[in-house]
Design brief:
about 0% strand; 16 helices; mainly alpha; about 70% helix; about 450 residues
Length: about 450
């Protein structure tokens, strides 16, 4: 006997789920994508396996946080524009509020000896997390010699300050060429997340052969209209900042830069961080390199996309420059401005491009460019690991003696994460305790 499809889901029920997801989505993009797969595909049967994977592949090709974009896409697929906006916003808002609180606590007590002890313990954990990400993605992706070459050349490009969009474009072209030559290695599950098992309880509400909802049907005019609305929102908000505050004001510069970061960075948060770190530390001076590491450590302890570290950068930039005359208020406003400009393009990509993507579900895969871009991101992440390792092991610079115990703690954290498969929070907790013990013994 055929099992009936899952019942339709009300918008109210979906809202509860997206809010819950935003509060519990710890573990970075891999964990978030896996959690959504388990809930949406396996347990709730709201969307089929193939539809989920198709949406995930599209989101991985986009610049920006793929887990948040995947939530936005699924929300849009289920309940049109309002569903996409609700899903994407609720995926971000809990972590934004938490990071504002943590950033305020950091400015208030970050220089206290015990606060410094906690941060000393967190920095090796952050370095180990980047190393773990390199290992995890590398083991899944680097299945052919040419992919190793792409990763290596990407690393050299970052060291030589090559433009990141150029690195991504070159990798995508290489992958496209290799796909034409039929030399691709077998693809592994994206981000180690989406399992290949299908829910055993019958077809999903939005199954492979379900009638296409009206809002998912492609319309050239509707895509242009949606795109125009998104661009108009960007022009109005950035233009208002420039008109009210001036083109060189911190908030205006943050809006322009984080729009650029959202549009030109591929491969997830760890690929974005080198670009953001260089600009925020060197070009604009919103934070120091040490503060950037502290922000990443705090970001790892909150739910939501890891790229929410930009809210920490915005808060510290607005707080230190007291852009409203009140440091705390300036920090809150800057964090919200940065978040708006970072995520606005992601909503635009999904809401405008979703119908076009749905119309391509039967088209050939973009596996080649996707594998090559992922290989290039590995090179970028290796460079980022080097930057963080230098800040952790040589906090005083190359002319000072290295911090031996920070080096040992980094190695221990990496071993626990990679070999022992310990959770991020177990490792973060161990490193924090170690930092407090070291502080007590000094």
């Amino acid at each position: 006997m055929n099992t009936p499809a899952a019942a339709p889901v009300s918008f109210r029920e979906a809202l509860k789920f997206w809010f819950w997801l935003g509060c519990v989505s710890f573990g970075g993009p891999a964990g978030q994508i896996a959690l959504m797969h388990e809930e949406l595909v396996v347990r709730k049967r709201w969307i089929s396996e193939n539809r989920y994977l198709h949406a995930l592949q599209y989101c991985m090709l986009l610049p920006g946080p793929e887990a948040q974009q995947l939530a936005t896409y699924t929300g849009w697929l289920m309940h049109s524009t309002r569903g996409g906006i609700a899903a994407g916003a609720l995926f971000v808002l809990p972590s934004l509020l938490l990071l504002i609180v943590l950033a305020w606590a950091y400015t208030a007590w970050g220089q206290h000896p015990w606060g410094q002890a906690i941060l000393w313990g967190l920095k090796p954990a952050v370095t180990a997390l980047v190393i773990q990400a390199v290992h995890r993605i590398g083991m899944r992706t680097l299945k052919a010699r040419w992919l190793w070459w792409v990763a290596g050349l990407s690393l050299l490009g970052m060291i030589w300050d090559a433009p990141f969009p150029l690195i991504v474009a070159a990798a995508a072209f290489t992958g496209w060429h290799m796909q034409k030559q039929h030399t691709l290695p077998a693809a592994a599950p994206s981000h180690g997340s989406a399992k290949t098992t299908v829910a055993a309880d019958g077809p999903a509400w939005l199954d492979d052969h379900s009638p296409a909802p009206a809002h998912t049907l492609y319309s050239h005019a509707r895509m242009i209209q949606t795109g125009a609305i998104g661009v108009a929102l960007w022009v109005v908000t950035l233009g208002a900042l420039a008109w009210l505050l001036g083109g060189h004001h911190t908030l205006t510069r943050m809006g322009g830069f984080f729009t650029q970061a959202a549009l030109l960075t591929f491969g997830g948060a760890y690929a974005v961080l080198p670009f953001v770190t260089h600009a925020a530390v060197t070009q604009y001076g919103w934070v120091t390199a040490a503060q950037m590491m502290d922000g990443l450590a705090l970001g790892e302890t909150t739910p939501g996309p890891l790229i929410m570290i930009v809210a920490f950068v915005g808060f510290l930039g607005g707080h230190s420059q007291a852009i409203t005359g009140y440091p705390l208020l300036g920090g809150i406003i800057a964090a919200c401005v940065v978040t708006w400009f970072t995520f606005l393009p992601s909503f635009l990509f999904i809401l405008a491009g979703g119908p076009l993507v749905e119309s391509t579900r039967q088209m050939p895969s973009l596996q080649g460019p996707l594998q090559a871009i992922t290989a290039a991101v590995i090179g970028v992440m290796v460079q980022l690991a080097g930057v963080f390792a230098r800040q952790t092991w040589l906090p005083g610079g190359w002319h000072m003696l290295p911090d031996f115990w920070a080096f040992v703690l980094t190695g221990l954290a990496a071993w626990l994460l990679i070999k022992q498969q310990r959770s991020i929070y177990q490792v973060l907790g161990l490193c924090v305790v170690t930092g407090l013990v070291v502080q007590a013994l000094r």
